[in-house]
Amino acid sequence: MYSLARPFLFALDAEQAHGAGLRALELAYRSGTLGLATRQPGPMPTRVLGLDFPNPVGLAAGLDKNGAHIDALLALGFGFVEVGTVTPRPQAGNPQPRMFRLPQHRAVINRLGFNNEGVDALVRNVQRARRKGGLLGINIGKNKDTPNEDAAQDYLFCLERVYPLADYITINISSPNTAGLRELQEEQSLRQLIGTLREAQERLGAQHGKRVPMLVKVAPDLSDDDIDAVCRVLADLSVDGVIATNTTVDRSAVLAHPHAGQAGGLSGAPLMGQSTLVLRRMRTRLPQEIPLIGVGGVTSGADAVAKMSAGASLVQLYSGLVYRGPSLVYECVEAIRRRREQPSRGPVAPA
Predict the structure, then answer these.
(1) How far apart are CA 148 and CA 129, in angstroms?
(2) Residue 143 labelled as part of a binding site
(3) pTM for the full model?
(4) How far apart are the C-alpha atoms of 214 and 159, rounded to whole Å?
(5) CA distances to 23, 285, 322, 324, 333 from 348, in Å
(6) Strand pairing of 46-48 and 51-53?
(7) Is 243 helix (H, G, I), strand (E, B) or coil?
(8) C-alpha–C-alpha distance, residues 4 and 347, integer Å
(9) Which of 40, 54, 258, 319 is most buried, most CB within 10 Å of its CB?
(10) Of 189, 282, 293, 190, nearest to 231 (Cα)?
């Protein structure tokens, strides 16, 4: 069915298509027809982060920034859905147009800039969701006008509000679309910020009687030395997990495209190689007890398997849905299942 809808969606501006696609998904879910259009993967229980995931394939943050479509997205067969990035106060994001498709590359460039309705609106949406069939991650960030020296307060504000509702929480310090945000990945800044948030995580765990895992999402554009420094900090502070990676500012794979000069983060197939290299390097430098979620460029089941082979315990996708539709979820789960059932080639992920 997505093959029929795609020409209509691609006739729209990319951001308009984003909204139209979510509205159509929600309508199909509420009318009970979504199941007719999607093939559900069979159960593939996967235990990571002390959590039991129905399967190891999740939706990356960015599609549902306000947590308004959690149930419909879970109904596509995802083992988990990550919503956000959400900030303390509502913000409009960057001026439009700010999303661009590169179809021949199966890629998207976006410079949305954490456009969202604020953390209180997200909390209300999450509280209304039924959340059947999968787990929920909530991705948090800072407001655009908050200077980096005050960033911890923004992250703390969001952390405290989403903590009781999330199965896990992601600290986003790697979007290229908020000026200066990636500077928080520098070793000293990272140690100070994550140290503060780790202390808050332990306090909130005692307050709420449950420990919610906290992950850090990193950029694909880090140098090898930067990756090593990030790994040292995250290992020293015993973070629960890492998501590798966010979008890239590199355009070397799409230089001939008319949109190559657009500012923002590039996602989709051209990101697969670099993102997976970062994932593999981080896996060799982090303790095994810190799991990795592989994201970036997954447009096929083979890509999902490659992320697992590089050291991921779970995978996420987003831009692949734009080009492949919901069938990609089933394809990825089943590809990982086939790989996992071949013991001679080694396990793909802890289960």
Answers:
(1) 33
(2) no
(3) 0.95
(4) 9
(5) 35, 18, 26, 24, 12
(6) antiparallel
(7) strand
(8) 37
(9) 319
(10) 282
> What residue ranges in the chain does DSSP mark as E strands?
46-48, 51-53, 57-59, 80-86, 99-102, 107-110, 135-140, 168-172, 214-218, 241-244, 265-268, 292-295, 314-317
Which tokens is 194 given? 């994550």
Q: Is 223 annotated as a binding residue?
A: no
CA distance 13 to 114: 19
Q: Match 């007719």 to its residue by tokens.
A: 36
In tens, the pLDDT along 16-25 reads 999 999 999 9
Q: Which residue has the tokens 């005692």?
A: 206
Could you report the per-residue pLDDT of 39-54, keeping only the tens digit for each?
999 999 999 999 999 9
* Burial zone of 122 (CB within 10 Å; 0-12 exposed, 13-18 middle, 19+ buried): buried
Catalytic positions, written as ranges: 175
Cβ proximity of 222 and 278 under 8 Å: yes
Q: Is 261 annotated as a binding residue?
A: no
* Main-chain dihedrals φ then ψ at residue 82, nearest 5 degrees: -110, 125
Per-residue confidence (pLDDT) for residue 1, from 0 to 100: 67
Q: Does 246 appear as a known binding residue?
A: yes
| Residue 110 marked ligand-binding | yes
Closest CA to 316 of 330, 338, 297, 334: 297
**How does pLDDT run across 283-331, given as a tens digit for each residue?**
999 999 999 999 999 999 999 999 999 999 999 999 999 999 999 999 9
